[in-house]
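Subject: design request, 336 residues
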């Protein structure tokens, strides 16, 4: 049995770090263990210009200093808008890693999102393909809540057929039907810890657990198993760690039913637990870093994280945010 795992420069390719007070709480909890993070643009106001992306990166790096003296990088993405022109995207390209498509109304702060059936989407995708800007997608379409990701598949197939050179990243993959989309040459994915470790019964209850409630929702055991198989055998080179760590204050989570699982401080240990319990520790480096470097063409800051098989007690809260599995115990700890 392996008792120690060393990871070079772990990268979280999908996380919500928020703004202001929440950013000051979450950025240090992220930089403590990760070498880099892709920060989602569903802020208020949304990140929809190169200047906003540059300012957001600076704010993250400033706040992250509290967490660690080790090198840390924040990658940014713009919130997809149909009015983006080719020239605008050419100016934005040096400052961002991707453009994030939010289907309108499908998740937190998605009121500025787009209708995936809007023909105006094609012009932007054509420019992105030409300029080599990847598309990150929240792949959920309107429909019964459990079927939303499957229903989005037709848009992915249409976009990939029209724009064969466009690199597409399906974020927080959750549904066994979507795994087949990874057969398409330029389609990649991120997967969260909760989608690999829990099923719908864990959030739905009873009792309902708001801290495991997210969009897309965690689904059936068959979906979780298909995602594990995709990571370990079907598409191991195409899938990256992307926690979708999404903090909401405890009062808003409970009173307003906000979707999001907060996992930033414990996600490396959670992923280690998934891979080690399947005897796939040797695949963790690719999942946590190498695939992202290759898919996005990035060289993250050099940093080493050492995991040891020692119980770690998950705090009951971080500030006013309740983490995934609060008060529980993890099998792996991070050692300095
Ligand atoms: O559960 C989620 N929370 N899913 C998302 O797509 C957004 C996120 C958030 O920003 O809270
Ligand atoms: Zn997200």
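Subject: RE: design request

Done. Sequence follows.
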């Amino acid at each position: 049995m392996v008792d120690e795992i060393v990871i070079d420069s772990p990268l979280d390719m999908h996380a919500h770090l928020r703004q202001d007070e929440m950013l000051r709480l979450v950025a240090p909890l992220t930089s403590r263990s990760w070498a880099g993070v892709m920060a989602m643009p569903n802020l208020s106001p949304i990140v929809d210009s190169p200047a906003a992306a540059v300012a957001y990166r600076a704010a993250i790096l400033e706040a992250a200093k509290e967490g660690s003296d080790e090198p840390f990088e924040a990658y940014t993405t713009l919130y997809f808008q149909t009015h983006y022109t080719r020239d605008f995207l050419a100016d934005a390209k040096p400052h961002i890693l991707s453009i994030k498509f939010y289907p309108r109304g499908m998740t937190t702060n998605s009121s500025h999102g787009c209708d995936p059936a809007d023909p105006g989407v094609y012009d932007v995708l054509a420019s992105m393909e030409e300029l080599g800007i990847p598309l990150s997608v929240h792949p959920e379409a309107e429909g019964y809540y459990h079927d939303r990701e499957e229903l989005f598949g037709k848009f992915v197939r249409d976009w990939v057929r029209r724009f064969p050179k466009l690199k597409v990243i399906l974020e927080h993959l959750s549904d066994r039907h979507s795994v087949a989309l990874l057969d398409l040459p330029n389609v990649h994915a991120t997967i969260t810890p909760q989608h690999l470790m829990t099923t719908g019964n864990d959030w739905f209850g009873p009792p309902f657990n708001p801290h495991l409630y997210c969009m897309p929702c965690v689904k059936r055991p068959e979906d979780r198993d298909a995602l594990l198989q995709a990571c370990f055998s079907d598409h191991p080179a195409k899938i990256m760690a992307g926690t979708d760590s999404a903090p909401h204050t405890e009062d808003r989570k409970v009173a307003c039913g906000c979707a999001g699982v907060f996992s930033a401080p414990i996600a490396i240990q959670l992923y280690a637990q998934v891979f080690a319990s399947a005897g796939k520790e040797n695949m963790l480096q690719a999942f946590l870093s190498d695939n992202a470097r290759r898919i996005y063409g990035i060289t993250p800051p050099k940093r080493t994280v050492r995991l040891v098989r020692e119980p770690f007690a998950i705090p009951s809260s971080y500030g006013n945010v309740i983490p995934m599995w609060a008060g529980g115990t993890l099998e792996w700890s991070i050692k300095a």
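Residues 50-64 form the longest helix (15 residues).
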